[in-house]
């Protein structure tokens, strides 16, 4: 029996860059991002689709990368937390999370920020209820969620061009 | 220091904030190293069993496997407390489902997992001890061969003043039995550890630990290596809440494997394994008998607790004390008797979770006060205001309590919630409940006995104007690095941007005991202040010379140093560093902190003392559907006596986070167990060790939280700042239970308060029976004769009276 299974070779477009990568075909997107592309900003909390820590965007929609085969993502647009800032300038969501207590231990933060990005990409005039519904799949044990919602509201306001 | 505070108390982006939102922050499982191998543990499927044999041959021969370890590789045990060193990294006696019996190290996780399936283990199944009553009834088989007797781990009794006499003199005696179910921390980050051999041959263990110092000591013990050959680095913890305080099997195993193989070895626990590592909230059954006068003063209380400890000692000896010792801190309680018993059972070990042992009796006490107020026809807030403890006093059990902001906290939540016009007036299905609490600002004694400082800080100043501060304290998300930077920055009159924090690395940083018992702000903060004041004095002397003024009145503010009497003349902080370096040589100082000696002198007086205590009051509003028992919580008001706020963004976050975790415990969180069917193994297993089935609140469940921070600076604390990490969790559970009573008139005397229990109580009510759901009895626990201590108010000396008599009675009881 061969110790190492066969690998597939393909290109994944991550944060706007087409990256050649080779991996065992059963690997999840989470595993390929973390282990083969070195993008450890995406976290895992259960690897069963329960906690939302591994959320990334695929073609603009939030997906649980622990339940997504990397193979399925060829030719699709993958966004992770590492691609959010412009150079050294933080995305308004990142700045608001850092300033308003949206991140305490920081472990759920990349996943919840990516979920919030998908939400705001679709609608900058979000209500608190819409924020709660959108982020209900991202568990956080530190913040009690309120400062997360406040940070998303602040970022939405920034992105609407208010407060400039 | 007379200048206005410029850093402390101001909302700031935390110093590690940027790394958290960009994905830069590297948690333990984000680390990798060249030639790194992966480790997996084989865990027992049986709750109680002897390992008769393990045939490792097939696993060891599996391609890609480098090492298989079993019990025989670990002759020495470990444990967080010197009195309960009872765990082996790999065991030959499984004490709960999930206890690790073997380990495989392989090229990758997949291969290691395959090899686990090739290990052939023969078990001899032993009788399962499932809960404390089972443990009391069945002294055999013993889960451990140490402890008080049979399956009793700890058993103790303390009496502070004649408590029966105090109850006899009361107008009313209230007797209640409460139960608090166990629950777990559920940190988002699963524990992970990377062990490596550094270039100089030393062992480096990078781990998601809250307590690198204690882990370091236990690694030295288990590996039989000098401490100086080991370096423990606490990676940023992705949440701790107490669950990463104990040194853990997986940390010992990968350290040993790295030493044997000379290669980096990493392990990351699965979510299921995190439930087995546990060390969470003890399930506690409690009986409270409380004497009250007709005008609502307490005369005394007799508290009895029975803890389900699980399979190991963990912090259990301390947890046992904490189910009672803080009970007298909130209110005037002239006499207090406290019996406690911790049993071993065949479940994952319980240990410290946020509030450590105190949420359980706090729940009972605050619900009982609600019952007392109703019986006496008093408003529950007024009743509490009438008995709030006096500042700078000693409790019946000899704890010195300094500042007490509890009355202000009660008044604040009463005003903000419009309590007076809404309590008992909201109509059927809606209710308000109030409760209060207290917590320590750090344990007064270390976990292992020593006279050394609890926290050390080293501060270096660079001629470029940067301050680098080193401390063993551990960032677990609570913001300890930000507190460290803020305190140094405040003393030196600079911005937190100019302070670099190096923390939680036993190879580099001075010892700090760790992130537990809400000790970091107070102990690390005091040590940091001492170090910063030493270098400030050097800077002041050099700057004074330059400015031709006396050093005494110099002000350090916003990166400049000036004298109010010297007009516009000033030097920049950076210039002052250069001047001082030229004058004194390289600039640096150390600071350290040791808490005050506890006033109690009896054996056991070491658990409970703290440099300061925080206080909290909380009002919960509920809407209870009488048809379904469903409890909706629209809003919570909470006021916390924080002494002084270091960073209001983080402090508010700690309060809301505590409310969140408390509300989860109140409504749904349970580390509960079930028996597999008889035809299977009948084993006692975790009900469902997954994040889906272990219910916790989501963003949709979280109520609005109104937070008030009450500032009454405490002289024992840096800039007066008390703890905020644990206290705000404590009043939420009883306030919720009291609000359910206000809404539908039923008492659920156990946690969690779930819809089925509410419905059952409503059904009892509709039949005209006592509308209460909760434990129906407290078993006969063989508590020992009490250690009797005369209270401070009655002229005691803090020592035990009648030691000889107690020993005689104890000896007679054994015969």
Q: What structural class results from the helix and strand content of chain B?
A: alpha+beta
Shape descriptor of chain A reads: globular
* Low-confidence blocks of residues of chain A: none
Tally of alpha and pi helices of chain A = 5
Strand segment tally of chain A: 5
Biggest protein-protein interface?
A: A-B, 58 and 59 residues
Q: Kindly give the count of domains of chain B.
A: 3
Query: What fraction strand of chain A?
Result: 15-25%
CATH architecture grouping of the largest domain in chain B: 2-Layer Sandwich
CATH superfamily of the largest domain in chain B: Aldehyde oxidase/xanthine dehydrogenase, molybdopterin binding domain
Work out the number of β strands of chain B: 35
Provide the CATH top-level class of the largest domain in chain B.
Answer: Alpha Beta
Stretches with pLDDT under 50, minimum 5 residues of chain B: none
Beta strand % of chain B:
15-25%
Describe the sheet with the most strands of chain A: 5 strands, mixed
Summarize the structure in words.
The complex is a heterodimer of chains A (164) and B (815). Chain A is of the alpha+beta class and 164 residues long. Chain A is globular, with a radius of gyration of 16 Å. Chain A has helices at residues 29-36, 92-100, 109-122, 128-135, 146-159, and strands at 8-14, 17-23, 55-58, 61-64, 77-79. Helices cover 32% and strands 15% of the residues of chain A. By secondary structure, chain B is an alpha+beta fold. Helix content of chain B is 27%, strand content 24%. Chain B has an eight-stranded mixed β-sheet. Chain B has a seven-stranded mixed β-sheet with strand order 3-5-1-12-9-10-11, sandwiched between helices. The longest helix of chain B is centred in the middle third of the chain and has 28 residues, at 520-547. The relative contact order of chain B is 0.13. Chains A and B meet through helix 2, helix 3, helix 4 and helix 5 of A and helix 1 and helix 17 of B.
């Amino acid at each position: 029996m061969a110790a190492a299974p066969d690998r597939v070779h393909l290109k994944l477009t991550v944060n706007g860059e087409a990256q050649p990568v080779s991996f065992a075909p059963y690997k999840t997107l989470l595993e390929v991002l973390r282990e083969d592309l070195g993008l450890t900003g995406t976290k895992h909390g259960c690897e069963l689709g329960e906690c939302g820590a591994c959320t990334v965007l695929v073609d603009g929609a939030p997906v649980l990368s622990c339940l997504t085969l990397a193979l399925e993502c060829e030719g699709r647009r993958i966004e992770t937390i590492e691609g959010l800032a412009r150079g050294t300038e933080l995305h308004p969501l990142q700045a608001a999370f850092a300033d308003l207590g949206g991140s305490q231990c920081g472990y759920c933060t990349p996943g919840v920020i990516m979920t919030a990005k998908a939400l705001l990409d679709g609608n900058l005039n979000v209500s608190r209820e819409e924020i709660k519904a959108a982020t209900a799949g991202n568990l956080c044990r530190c913040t009690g969620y309120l400062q997360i919602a406040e940070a998303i509201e602040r970022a939405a306001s920034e992105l609407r061009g208010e407060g400039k | 220091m007379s200048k206005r505070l410029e850093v402390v108390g101001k909302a700031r982006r935390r110093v590690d904030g940027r790394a958290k939102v960009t994905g830069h922050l590297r948690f333990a499982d984000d680390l990798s190293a060249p030639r790194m191998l992966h480790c997996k543990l084989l865990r027992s499927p049986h709750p109680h069993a002897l390992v008769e044999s393990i045939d490792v041959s097939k696993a060891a021969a599996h391609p890609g496997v480098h090492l298989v370890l079993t019990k025989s590789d670990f002759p020495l045990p470990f444990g967080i407390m010197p009195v309960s060193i009872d765990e082996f990294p790999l065991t030959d006696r499984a004490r709960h489902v999930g206890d690790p019996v073997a380990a495989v190290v392989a090229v990758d996780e997949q291969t290691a997992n395959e090899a686990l399936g090739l290990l052939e283990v023969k078990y001899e199944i032993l009788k399962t001890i499932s809960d404390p009553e089972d443990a009391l009834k069945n002294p055999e088989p013993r889960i451990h061969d140490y402890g008080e007797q049979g399956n009793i781990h700890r058993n103790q009794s303390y009496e502070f003043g004649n408590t029966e006499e105090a109850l006899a003199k009361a107008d009313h005696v209230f007797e209640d039995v409460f139960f608090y179910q166990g629950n777990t921390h559920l940190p988002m980050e699963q524990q992970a550890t990377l062990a490596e051999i550094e270039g100089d041959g030393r062992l480096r263990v990078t781990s998601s630990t809250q307590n690198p110092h204690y882990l370091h000591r236990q690694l030295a013990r288990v590996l039989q290596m000098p401490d100086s050959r080991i370096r423990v680095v606490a990676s940023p913890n992705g949440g701790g809440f107490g669950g990463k305080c104990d040194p853990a099997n997986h940390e010992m195993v990968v350290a040993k494997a790295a030493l044997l193989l000379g290669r980096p070895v990493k392990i990351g626990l699965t979510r299921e394994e995190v439930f087995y590592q546990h060390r969470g909230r003890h399930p506690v059954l409690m009986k409270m008998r409380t004497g009250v006068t007709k005008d609502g003063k307490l005369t005394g209380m007799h508290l009895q607790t029975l803890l389900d400890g699980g399979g190991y000692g963990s912090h259990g000896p301390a947890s046992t004390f904490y189910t009672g010792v803080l009970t007298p801190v909130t209110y005037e309680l002239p006499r207090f008797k406290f019996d406690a018993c911790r049993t071993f059972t065949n479940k994952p070990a319980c240990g410290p979770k946020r509030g450590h042992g105190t949420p359980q009796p706090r729940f009972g006490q605050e619900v009982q006060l609600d019952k007392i107020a109703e019986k006496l026809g008093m408003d529950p807030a007024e009743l509490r205001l009438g008995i709030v403890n006096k500042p700078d006093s000693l409790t019946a059990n000899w704890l010195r309590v300094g500042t007490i902001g509890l009355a202000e906290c009660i008044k604040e939540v009463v005003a903000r919630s419009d309590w007076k016009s809404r309590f008992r007036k909201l109509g059927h299905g809606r209710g308000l409940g109030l409760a209060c609490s207290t917590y320590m600002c750090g344990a007064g004694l270390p976990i292992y006995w020593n006279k050394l400082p609890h926290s050390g800080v080293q501060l270096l100043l660079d001629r470029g104007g940067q301050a680098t501060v080193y401390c063993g304290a551990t960032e677990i998300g609570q913001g300890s690095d930000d507190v460290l930077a803020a305190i140094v920055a405040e003393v030196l009159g600079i911005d937190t941007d100019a302070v670099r924090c190096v923390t939680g690395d036993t190879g580099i940083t001075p010892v700090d005991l760790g992130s537990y018992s809400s000790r970091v702000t107070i102990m690390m903060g005091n040590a940091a202040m001492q170090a910063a004041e030493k270098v400030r004095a050097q800077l002041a002397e050099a700057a004074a010379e330059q400015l031709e003024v006396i050093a005494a009145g110099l002000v350090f503010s916003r990166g400049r140093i000036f004298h109010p009497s010297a007009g516009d003349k000033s030097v920049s902080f950076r210039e002052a560093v250069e001047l001082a370096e030229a004058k004194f040589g390289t600039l640096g100082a150390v600071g350290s902190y040791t808490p005050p000696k506890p006033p109690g002198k009896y054996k056991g007086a070491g658990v409970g003392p703290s440099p300061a205590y925080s206080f909290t009051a909380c009002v919960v509003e509920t809407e209870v559907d009488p048809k379904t028992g469903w409890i909706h919580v629209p809003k919570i008001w909470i006021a916390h006596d924080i002494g002084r706020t270091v960073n209001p963004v983080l402090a508010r976050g700690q309060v809301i986070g505590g409310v969140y975790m408390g509300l989860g415990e109140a409504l749904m969180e349970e580390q509960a167990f079930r028996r597999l069917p008889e035809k299977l193994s009948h084993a006692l297993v975790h009900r469902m060790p997954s994040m889906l089935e272990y219910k916790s609140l989501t963003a949709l469940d979280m109520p609005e939280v109104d937070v008030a921070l009450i500032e009454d600076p405490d002289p024992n604390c840096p800039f007066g700042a008390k703890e905020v990490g644990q206290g705000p969790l404590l009043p939420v559970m009883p306030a919720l239970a009291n609000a359910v009573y206000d809404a539908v008139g039923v008492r659920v005397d156990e946690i969690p308060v779930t819809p089925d229990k509410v419905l059952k109580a409503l059904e009892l009510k509709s039949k005209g029976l006592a509308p209460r759901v909760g434990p129906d009895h407290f078993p006969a626990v063989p508590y020992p004769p009490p250690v009797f201590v005369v209270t401070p108010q009655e002229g005691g000396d803090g020592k035990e009276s009648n030691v000889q008599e107690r020993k005689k009675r104890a000896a007679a009881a054994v015969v």
